[in-house]
Amino acid sequence: MNEKERQEYLEQYKKDKEKGVPFFPDILFKDAVISLVIFIALVALAYFVGAPLEPRADPADTSYTPRPEWYFLFLFQLLKYFPGSLEVIGVFIIPSAAIILLIALPLIDRSAKRHFLRRPFILGATILSVIGVLFLTIQSNREIPPPLEVVGGDQTALLYTENCAPCHGPSMTVPESVNLHEVIAQSEHEGMPAWSGDLTSDEIDALAGFIISPAGSQLFTDNCSECHEVAELVASNPIALRESIQLGLEYEPHAELDIPNWSTSISQEQQTTLLNFLVAPDGQRLFATNCAPCHGQSVAFAGGEEQLLETISQGGMHLDMPPWREMLDDSELDLLARYVTDPNSVPEGAETFQANCSSCHGERIPSSEDLETARQIIAEGGGHEMMPVWGEVLTSEQLDALVTYTVAAAEGTSVEVGQELYSQNCALCHGEFGEGGPNPSRAGDIIFPISTEEYLKTRDDFTIRSIIAQGQPNYGMSPFGSVFGGPLDDEDIDALVTYIRSWEANPPVELPPEIVVEVDEDTVALDTEQIYVQLCAQCHGLEGEGGIGPSFEDSQFQDTRTDTQLLNAINLGHEATSMISWGDVLSVDQINEMVALIRRFGSPSVSGLPTPEGVSFASDVMPIFEAECAACHGNFGGWDASTYTSVLGTGNNAPVIIPGDPENSLLAQKMLGTHSIGAIMPPAGLLPEDEIQVILDWIEEGALDN
Amino acid sequence: MSVGFGNWLDERIGWRKVWDAIFLRKIPKVNWLYTLGSATLFVALLQGITGILLTIYYVPTPDHAYDSVVFITTQVPGGWFIRGVHSWGASAMVLLSVLHMVRVIMYGAYKYPREVTWFTGVGLLLATMGFGFTGYLLPWDQKAYWATIVGTRIAGVAPFIGEPILRIMRGGEDLSAVTLARFFGTHVWVLPTILLLFLGFHMYLVIRLGISAVPGKEE
Q1: Residues of A whose CB is below 8 A from B177
Q2: Under a CB-based contact definition with an 8 Å cutoff, are residues A280 and A206 in contact?
Q3: Residue B4 in domain
Q4: CATH superfamily of A426-505
Q5: A107 CB within 8 Å of a chain B CB
Q6: How many C-beta atoms lie closer than 10 Å to residue A77's C-beta?
Q7: Average pLDDT of the residues of chain A
Q8: Residues A292-314: what's their mean pLDDT?
Q9: CATH 1.10.760.10 is right for the domain spanning A521-602
């Protein structure tokens, strides 16, 4: 608009105004009419519909489907079209651009034209925006709650509709190389629940398969569901799955059945779709079903991703084992054959194995049952190992997932890396389980436990990270962050924090220590084994195998401590940990005997605890009841575990013990979980085998009060 | 008597001039679509009144918010009605302001000399959206809680500033009592202040510049 146009407009407006009407009463009347209409409408809505109020907010409810108010729905819907890393476009770029454009509208459209037909661009853009917002709002309404029709009993589709569709809509596009299983199981972002709590691993994989290949799920429903369940097939071997489809009736388990010949009745393309559904690209599961039987659970691979992909795709074809008889003499061949048959019998074979085989076999020793076969395989080399050519079995999505998982797993999860770093850097002062102990840099000072729930709940990641990085010089902790001259870089510290955080779900140290010590004549009169079982075993294990406390079987533990040190440790305890000072409870003689007992755990030839002849109620059975049952039974009604008489005589279904007949004793049934009604006892799961045996033996021997 | 009183008052506060400027100003011939702005203003007024009434009983803490809303709905005489009007009024407000905006775009009413009126109008629209977003959490029911989780997370996605914004909105990592207090404070103090400032300026400009005429086919 130039100066002339402006003047013209002002003059024109002046004329329009003169021809017009006064605001009061003409215009104001119109406004009042509209306001009244709107007021009546609002009153009617308030009266007849009212304001909605749902149940009280429940942050623990993961099944709730969040839905914003209707005027934000279009934005909510828009986000669905920008999954993963594109999210920022839908969330930030588009809305910001829209707002900026809206504000700047008078600066963009500066012509003198006012009638909308003379401004086709603005008219078009406005109509498009309105239609777009309307479309998104309607689309969002269609996709959320009114649940989708589930076609023809497709169980996985139903699972998807119930659990995923409310937020993700009827279908989802997933960027490549996303570990869907993990995302579903662990949840990727806030608002999305970790489904591993509600769904089984098989269901999650079926879901992952469905998301990648919904058509495959339909094919499954149409063709396979009459005989098979999804869960059964997603968990099975991909080779068998592929064969069952491609071989048609020649596939053995199908040969006798009256079913269509899948190899011809399902097209090639559909076969892939179906397989993509059934063998979801879940690297971890693929590894577990396909690789672990031969390679074991440990993932050790040092090469790059491409190299691994090639190795896996080519499978057995890459295995090029030379005929070793040309390079080794007979005695060496013998040694190796014996070594792989039974590594323990010829420890000296390890060196030969290291020298010749490890470069390909790694740490894993191929096992052979029979010496002759082993010798032959080593001598002749070649295609001795039947690693399948996975490139022909798995689809490329599955191969990618497998490779990604293996490479990541070989590096270790951050918890594992963190654990490693922790034991190298922190365990010396903070204890292996963060239980704390004497402060080596400040005599008389005690490092308090860092693995209690309370400690972890009250410190956020940032705090822990800073403590590690900057240290706590006042308490004698030096800085560990590389910025402050320490050995750890940021990534290391993050891994450490992740590991320390992992304690929070299951704190290894509970404070105050929940150890019930009855300092009366009876307890103190117990012999050393009984004291050990009742008190020490809670943390150090029945066989001294360790637990919260260190293992006594560990030779390092035994070698680095003198008897006096052990005695002191028992006598004085470690302050602020579960290891209290037992000197208050036990006599010096008892502690000395305990030291001897602990030493016995260290020498493997001598069994730690002598097997008792005949089971005694007072010294064998009762301690188990006290430790495992009495917390509830005796306090909360029902069966009472506190005395011999009550054990035999109380309970809603008394008697719970039939002397001489463990099989029909309710107590034994509950303890073994064989009783059909109610849960296993104790609710935490099976007791240790030896404890169960003691109780069974006691009942077998007549449930005597001995 | 009334004329006498009118004169007496006019000598002292000069209301006749204001009255002439606001109510007797001439308006070009306009159609019913021009009532949308006044209608939005009316709903805003209604929201202010019902909102003030609601704060008399509402308690902005997680352990009492829901109960107080239930109390308003079931125990306070007419409380259910006030809450119903406020809740529906929010929707009406958004709807009417958007319609008003579309009308302004269609008639080119944002052009010379009314550009600044438009800027304040966009500000008012954003404030209205802000009211909707913050008011949503206040009943502390399931819908409120989860929609706010999602809503605030959406804001957190923005690059660089997202994370701080998220923390500011929530008052920490998670949705908590602090979040509710913030949303409440924003809803009843911050946004009304912003709304009043923008609204006053908007109205002043409307009166000063006059309502744009319906453009003819040739304009």
Answers
A1: none
A2: yes
A3: no
A4: Cytochrome c-like domain (1.10.760.10)
A5: yes
A6: 22
A7: 76
A8: 66
A9: yes
Answer whether residue B218 is part of any domain: no
Contact B140 A67 (CB under 8 A): no
Give the range of the structural domain holding residue B186, as residue numbers without chain letter: 32-209
CATH of the domain at B100: 1.20.810.10
pLDDT (tens digit per residue) in A170-183: 677 776 656 677 77
Domain membership of residue B219 (yes or no) is: no
CA pair distance A8, B219, nearest whole angstrom: 11
| The total number of structural domains that make up chain B | 1
- Per residue in A147-172, pLDDT (tens digit) is 434 444 677 777 777 777 767 766 77
Residue B91 in this model has a pLDDT that exceeds 80: yes
Give domain status of residue B20, yes or no. no
What pLDDT was estimated at residue A235?
A: 65
Domain boundaries, chain A: 1-48, 155-280, 426-505, 521-602, 617-700
Greater confidence (A521 vs A183) lies with A183
The answer on pLDDT for A146 being more than 50 is: no
SS3 B189: helix
Mean pLDDT along residues A462-490: 82
Q: Which residues pair with A437 in a beta bridge?
A: A447
Q: Give the whole-number percent of chain A exceeding pLDDT 70.
A: 77
Contacts of residue A250, Cβ cutoff 8 Å, sequence gap at least 6? none
Residue of chain B with shortest Cα separation from A86? B157
To the nearest 10°, report the CA torsion of A417, A420, A426, A427.
Answer: 140
Pairing relation of β-strands A21-22 and A437-438? unpaired
Test B147 with A51 for CB contact under 8 angstroms.
Answer: no
* pLDDT tens column, A672-701: 877 766 667 776 677 778 888 888 888 888
pTM: 0.49
Tell me, yes or no, if A484 comes closer than 8 A to chain B by beta carbon. Answer: no
